[in-house]
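Support case: user asked for a sample of complex input and structure output to validate their parser. Sending the pair below.
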Amino acid sequence: MKVTARTHLCLGAAAVALGLALPAAAEDSADPIRLTLHDWTGQLITTTLMGEVLKAAGNNVEYVQADYLAQFAGLETGDLHVAMEIWETTGREAMDAALATGKVVNLGPTGMEAIEEWWYPAYMAERCPGLPDWEALKDPACAEAFSTPETAPKGRYLGGPVTWGGFDDERVEALGLPFEVIHAGTDAALFAELESAIQRQAPILLWVYAPHWAPAKYEGEWIRFPPYTPECYSDPAWGINPDMAYDCGKPTGPIWKVAWAGLEEKWPRAAAAVKAFTISNADMGAMITRVDLEGATVEQVVADWMAANEATWKGWIGQ
Amino acid sequence: MSDAALPAAGARPRGLAWLAAAALFALFLAWGQDLAPWAFALPRGWQVPFADWIGGFVRWLLDDASLGLFTFAEFTRFLSALLGAPYALVRAVLVEGWPAAGIPPLPWTAVVALAGLLGHRAGGWPLALLAAASFLFIALFGRWESAMLTLASIVIAVPLGIAGGLGLGILAHRRPWLARALTPVLDLMQTIPVFAYLVPVLILFGFGPVSAIVATLIYAMPPMIRITLLALARVPGEIVDLGRMVGCTRAQMTWRVMVPAAKDALMLGANQVIMLSLNMVIIASMIGAGGLGFDVLQALRRLDFGAGLEAGLAIVALAVAMDRVSQAWAGLRPEAPRAAPWPARHPYLVAALAILAAAVVAAQLWPWAQSYPQAWRLSTGDFWSRVMREINVTYFDRLEAIKTTLLVNVMLPVKRLLLGLPWAGVAALLAFAGWRLGGWRLAALAGALTVLIALTGLWEQAMTTVYLCGVSVAFAMLIGVPVGILAAGRDWLWPPVRAVIDTLQTLPSFVYLMPAVMLFRVGDFTAMLAVVAYAVVPAIRYTVLGLRGVDPRLIEAGRAMGCTRGQILRRIRLRLALPEILLGLNQTIMFALSMLVITALVGTRDLGQEVYIALTKANAGAGLVAGLCVAFIAIIADRLIQAAAARARARLGLAEEGAHGA
């Protein structure tokens, strides 16, 4: 214990010495750094955590509520500065468009890995015994078990909003699944249907992603499709169906941190801290569960994490 | 005029022409597919790349457009800073205080008491109670800070909307060319879905509350301009002449004569600005305004129906308090100045200062008087979620059966029919309707706009839109008109009905949309429910307005002639209220179209979805094109119904022109 304390002290002294030695140019501006908040819990936690760490480092921080995709307009003009969660799986297109302007930069992965796939609640395993293997879905009886009056005899698969992409219509065709893809308009609608089905123990097969509270709250399983490779999406010849692409599962992908290009110049130390930020899926899942299922506030959960992981976050800000 | 004089003689040929047109259309529908396939599916080469053109124009506006000394983008940024300063001030007073100087924001006790005081000034104790209770409700359910954040942007947007609308309306009243130029612009402002111009607004005005205020202004100002124009035109000639005789200058004429004379109608405009501004709270929260809208979105994302409802009702409380107080204020008679010492002449100002002083002192003494204590908060907790669960588990099968019946027997056949219609045939039929109802100019307008929609390549989405809105409007009228008839005849029934429709108009539809998804899944049916819930409001309001406006002497005359109640209703009251009911239909269609943005959120595949997709891809061109298609549908419907209403008026001898002609 003593040793660590002393090491910290030494490091601190070294930092002070460095600070004195370096010219003022490396100092951060006193203007507030604007971090964007979206409407899902995980992102609120990630952003609040980053913001509190920056505050501890002496930066001035402001949180701005913004839409996930509309925010890029603000990041490009420098009205907004840091977006903590851009998912490879849903935000790639918008992020690439923004990066191409040169006004937005990618500050690297958050350490969290996004999973997106077809998902079913555990009680459906009895009604369609071959699951979670995707071949089971080809069985007409199994598809019927997932059907509703509007889709019968085909099964019903509830996809994400059209804007999420995901190629589910193509996947159904390429793999020859007797399913109809219905697109939910929003994330909230998606999980409202899931909640409703689970309350009634009714059949449902839908797009679920993690980290999220749903797979933590409900028992269920991801469908196992042939694993994703880049060739599967680009080359029709690859995979089970020789004539069509998308005959495999969805890619998993990192969640990126993205910032206004001027961040590094105006707040060099803060930019370094944002780059250094990483957190694991497990830590995040635990925090989301505490907020969404146990009713703790985001601020409280973040404060607890910071108290328990002081060495980690102090490393990000070089203390 | 022959129509007005001889309605019976005019009716027959008109009926025949309609019949012939319909028969021709049906024949074309049955056999036209082989004769003219291009009329059914637009050939690819005919499609006009409007989206690219508009996108290019927006880019030019942002990057290159110059107004001489500065660029267009710099100009909008300057406007943005201009709006941002008062907003920052209000926000500091209500929400943040000045932490650097150690000054806290206005204590909640002060805001509640001041609201009560304003209510008392406007309408005595009942209104004081209502205003204070509305704010107390917000505090009680722990929404104080969010509500003050929302209030801060409303406090900036509403006066600007009213003043801007009034100013533009007065200018347009003085210069008829401006009025003519404004009309189509107003139509577009009101009917293009907000999402369509959100991207350009964001880029031009920067990301944050100011953009939200700008978007709110674009959405909420048009009714004020329209009503100002209408109200000034209706000021009786005698009053204007009197003003001239006593030698008023132009400014005196406007502010001392015309505006006071038109005050009642102008207040209706102010009411609409308030309601529409609060309508924008959800969308404003998506672009950085925060506040109650954000609370609603976040709660529903967690499926926390109780919290969503509480935040939604807080918006309703704000709307009701602001609306009722401003309405009562308009009814106040100006008091004659009295010779008395200053405090006696300004009792309310003195009271306000006293309240402020007391609240600030109290806040220093007791922390609970500064910010509403956490421990006193009420919450419905998971009560609503449990209610939903109960309904879901118990009634789902029965609801599903009703839904399937409606879907299979009504909605899907209409959808199939509409989607199968040839665009050229629809354009011809609408042009014919325009010709019969309003002459060649209306015919050209209706036909040309329909062809334009087809040329964008969005015909299928447009027809899906027409189907969804059409079915919803039919249901809204089927519910709204009978409710309106019931409420108009019974004085005790109107206040509760009014409370319900005010709530429906201001409660964010997201609050009831997600429970609807739980019971009915995503899809057209759920979308229709949301549209009907919102669009039923004008159907009820205008029916009541029309029925109450019927001259009581005519009803008396009917009674004297021995009409039964049913006869009086059908033959006299409903016939005479027909123009207003048609306007109600018109507004119902507008309300339904404005809900498209929301229906996109439950997965419909209509123009609203196109706009939403364009928003998420920040594609300004595609968004505006899809938005313009919505506006065209609205304009066609609006003009045809207006023309029909004008004919109805003329036939009943209600309109001034008709009266003069006869």
